[in-house]
Specification:
Elements: H1 2-18, H2 25-47, H3 53-67, H4 71-121, E1 124-127, H5 134-139, H6 151-157, E2 173-176, H7 182-194, H8 205-212
Antiparallel strand pairs: 1-2
Helix pairs in contact: 1-2, 1-3, 2-3, 2-4, 3-4
Length: 214
């Protein structure tokens, strides 16, 4: 139907222009601009397969008013048609944007879940013994390449059971997950080297800051 409107519009505007006087020229131009803007929006809405019959009906009436040289009334109807089409387009595009946001969020959650599952599948378990420390566990772990400076990674991956990294208890089961993330490895080593003073029984501010960077 919108294609038929375009044809009708052209014929009407030609007829209107034929008998147009000088004083009406500005009003005719304004009416044509409003009319054409409405056509553009309606065509866009139709491309989205949106129902804009009310907008097309108003635009058809606006075309008749142009032919009758009732330019002010025509502009009112063309603008109303534009608003109806624009509102339909805006609602559609907003819904599409929200759908994309939800899809992207779900995809990211699935990616993270898959990555976590993969890491946990290859994780090493360590049951804490008397005299153990995170430093010593990292130093003896092939998963962490026997690097004691990577003990903060054990702390971060087990923070649900470790409150104070300087105080771990016998029989506590820790998971040691291999990582190839260079940024994470560098952050762990940097924290181990620059941690500062510490005391038993509480989580240091520097440890909390490190966790927040994970």
């Amino acid at each position: 139907m919108h294609k038929r409107l375009l044809i009708i519009a052209t014929l009407m505007l030609i007829s209107a222009c034929a008998g147009n006087s000088k004083e009406d020229e500005q009003q005719l131009i304004a009416a044509e601009e409003s009319y054409n803007e409405a056509i553009t929006l309606i065509n866009k809405a139709r491309a989205y397969n949106l129902e804009v019959d009310d907008a097309e009906s108003k635009l058809s009436q606006a075309g008749i008013l142009i032919k009758e040289k009732k330019y002010a009334d025509s502009i009112i109807l063309s603008d109303a048609a534009s608003k109806l089409a624009a509102d339909a387009i805006r609602q559609y595009e907003d819904e599409q944007a929200q759908t994309k946001i939800k899809a992207d969020k779900l995809a990211e959650q699935e990616r993270q879940a898959a990555a976590t599952k993969l890491r946990n599948a290859s994780a090493q378990k360590h049951v804490v013994k008397a005299g153990d420390s995170l430093w010593g566990i990292a130093k003896s772990s092939s998963t962490l390449n026997y690097d004691p400076l990577l003990w903060p990674i054990i702390f971060a991956d087990n923070q649900s059971v470790i409150n104070d990294p300087d105080l771990i208890s016998p029989e506590m089961t820790l998971i040691i997950i291999k990582t190839t993330d260079v940024n994470r490895l560098n952050k762990a080593r940097s924290h181990a080297q620059r941690r500062g003073s510490w005391s038993l029984g509480s989580r240091e501010d520097s440890d909390q800051n490190y966790l927040q960077q994970q």
